[in-house]
Amino acid sequence: LYARIRVAAEPREKTRRARGGLVEGFRYVVGQRTLAVVVGGFAVVTLAAGLVNATLPKFTAGLGLGAGGYAWALSALAVGMITGEALTGAVAERIEPRWLVAGLAAMGCIFFAFAWSGSAVVALLLFAAFGVANGFAEVVMMTAIHQQADAAYQGRVFGVGSTIWRTTMLGAVALAPAVDAIASPAQAITV
């Protein structure tokens, strides 16, 4: 499949050679307001997603979905994400970084409704809706990075972002047992 792709040689603009390293990438992200908001905003999402992911088996079991509840929830999330990404790509002629606000706000509101849904069917529908919002937000986030970062820094921005996002998600998974010890699954998801 890839062997058939031909890339036309286009004249490249001369860009200043960027220095390497994660620290330099972090400085670049922090120095660019839009990139700092996009990377930081998505870090909050991955923190919440990590906590929800660690809480999800207990939450879905409490809704009566049993041992397979986690799989049902992830399936609903996947269908939603695919739908959100496809719709965003099909509908949006131009994507603006500020749209991330709407996506993140929708995700937060849907998480809250999901946490207190009380019904397996409603919870799965809400988690699918969360997936749609998440798919939208991911397309906006990736597009914003490509639009806002200088070509010489794009790899570093994605590297810094990926490091932060994985750290926040896995950090939340690590903190989940402590949250689980003092809160119900609905309270943990609300947090």
Task: Give a description of the structure.
It is a single chain. This protein is mostly helical. 75% of the residues lie in helices and 0% in strands. It has seven helices and no strands. The chain has helices at residues 22-31, 33-62, 69-91, 99-115, 120-148, 154-182, 185-190. It starts with 21 loop residues before the first helix and ends with a helix. The model has no long low-confidence stretch (mean pLDDT 88).
Task: Put the structure in a nutshell.
This protein is mainly α and 191 residues long. It contains 7 helices and no strands. The radius of gyration is 19 Å and the shape is globular.
Keywords for this entry:
191 residues, mainly alpha, globular
Order of helices and strands: HHHHHHH
The outline comes out as: globular
The portion of residues assigned to helices is over 70%
Number of strands: 0
End-to-end Cα distance: 45 Å
Rg over C-alpha atoms, rounded to the nearest angstrom: 19 Å
Structural class: mainly alpha
Percent range for β-strand residues: under 5%
